[in-house]
Write the structure tokens for this entry.
Amino acid sequence: MTVLVGRQAPDFTAAAVMPDGSIKDDFRLSDSAGQYRLLFFWPLDFTFVCPSEIIAHDHRVKTFAERDVQLIGVSIDSQFTHYAWRNTPVDQGGIGEVQFPMVADVHREIMTRYGIAHPEDGVALRASFLIDRSGVVQHQVVNNLPLGRNVDEMVRLVDALQFTEEHGEVCPAGWRKGQPGMKADAAGVADYLNKHADSL
């Protein structure tokens, strides 16, 4: 597996099903340069944990958009399989008309570049990459196939990243929007722990 944190997110071009249901043959990650991006992978369409994660992301599209974050999903399925799954009702095992691009990585090139191929099954692990406005990966998480992700944790990390960028302070354990940060020096650590150590 590749650790991409602190590095430029690999760009790619591939077909994708767009939020309006159209198919774009040359979707590029770099098309959304200048925005924050949450790039997330799932193993396969029409499976089990995957629809719960995709719907959870879709339910938070507005929350991410308010933070200038573009959601982008990827799996090894074709754009036509994505299209069919998107047009299958939720109560029939589909995902409905999700409002973010679904990228087709049929040649497995994107998951390979991101270093998150399952060692045996030939699919992507459940991986998420938070990319800043400069295209640098600031956070990544990779789960094995049975373990669904917590999308609210990614919202928290977006808030933490934006707080750090705005205030120049770091975010201690469990930090949430509206809470104090910490100055990144010995005095700042001492002051923060003096006030908050018991609640950590």
Summary: The CA atoms of residues 76 and 83 lie 13 Å apart. The chain has a mean pLDDT of 95. The radius of gyration is 18 Å. The helical segments are 49-59, 61-65, 79-86, 109-113, 151-167, 186-196.
